[in-house]
Amino acid sequence: MGKGSGYGKVILFGEHFVVHGLPGIVSAIDSTTDAEVKKGVKGLQIKDERKTAKGYSEEKRLQQIESIERMLKAMNLDAKTPLDIWIGGSLPGFSGLGASAASSVAIARAISEELSLNLSNEKINAIAYEAEKAYAGNPSGIDNTAATYGGLMWFKKNPAGGQDVVEKIHIRKPIEIVIGSTGKVANTKAMVEGVADRKKKNPAKYDPLFKQAENLAVAGRKALESGDLKKVGDLMNENHRILQEIGVSSKELDQLVDIACKQGSFGAKLTGGGGGGCMVALTPGKEVQGKVVGAFKGAGYEYLMTRIGVTTY
Ligand code: MEV
């Protein structure tokens, strides 16, 4: 049997904008999706035992099958290779946490082990990028890169299809965060296409917002590296506002962001594709982290308490 894992992630700056070649900042979190793969006898048999938001597995089922077929093709294998696949791990199947990319990396690693392909991380990342196309249509590559390598990183897609810019960001110590889940499953592909359409139709509105998002990522990196967490939080709030303007937030996401800020979070924003899914609150120290968690619980939302800057790259 082959085994593999992939990290979940939060995007601190730049989701959606990264698809268009602007920079983003992503951190892996210390929750993983794990996979086990055995050669099978009949088609793809998938046992998905992840904890998920209601309806997640059903909503993603067809995309999941397409993603595995894409992976097999990228490995130069028959797309119909019979495989028995188990998926589990500590990363919940909530939209926005890179669960699809984490599962693709985990499955690719497990297939590589089971079939003795000995694939490098670079190859696993490239295969997971192909798989991401099933979930995101035109992915930037930020999710699969974080899922493969872990760590806190600066990411900039190469629009010409060559090497992306991936740079490690150094911080003094890991920072506590709270991830709040709206419980709503989101379709990343539809969200990415929606932004691209609106940008095309209304450049007068969207071009300045894209420029602001780029400036925020640059300032966010500086603030993270210099340890100015208040500034990081302010910039995250600003990033959330821009994401609202490009039409990817939701009532529940705004409510979670609001609750987090009222409880002393340094800053909060939606994370990932939006339209449901998750948000992230920057909550340095156990005390503020606990307060935000308490308020999310009180309002009936699921959450994940974790830290950024812990996993290695
Ligand atoms: C999804 O986690 C992030 C998006 O920017 C899509 C992508 O970059 O592939 C919405």
Structural summary, described in words:
Strand 3, helix 1 and strand 4 (83-89) form a beta-alpha-beta unit. Helix 1 packs across helix 2 (99-114) and helix 3 packs across helix 5. With 313 residues, the protein is α+β, with helices and mostly antiparallel strands. It has 9 helices and 10 strands. The strands form 2 sheets. Strands 1, 2, 3, 4, 5 and 6 form a 6-stranded mixed beta sheet that branches. The chain has 2 domains: 2-168, 2-Layer Sandwich (Ribosomal Protein S5, domain 2), CATH 3.30.230; 175-308, GHMP kinase, C-terminal domain (Alpha-Beta Plaits, 2-Layer Sandwich), CATH 3.30.70.890. Helices cover 44% and strands 23% of the residues. The chain has helices at residues 56-74, 99-114, 121-136, 142-149, 188-201, 203-226, 229-245, 251-262, 286-298; strands spanning 2-13, 24-39, 44-48, 83-89, 152-156, 165-168, 175-181, 267-271, 278-282, 302-308. It binds (R)-mevalonate (MEV). Residues 11, 15-16, 18-19, 98, 136, 139-140, 142-143, 188, 192, 272-273 line the site of (R)-mevalonate. (R)-mevalonate (MEV) binds at residues 11, 15-16, 18-19, 98, 136, 139-140, 142-143, 188, 192, 272-273.
* Tally of DSSP helical segments: 9
The unreliable regions are none
Largest sheet, if any? 6 strands, mixed
* Ends apart, CA distance between termini: 26 Å
Structural class: alpha+beta
Can you tell me the overall shape? globular
Q: Compute the average pLDDT.
A: 95
CATH secondary-structure class of the largest domain: Alpha Beta
For the record, the count of structural domains works out to 2
Number of strands: 10
The percent range for helix content is: 40-55%
Bound molecules: (R)-mevalonate
Strand content: 15-25%
Q: List SSEs in N-to-C order.
A: EEEHEHHHEEEHHHHEEHE
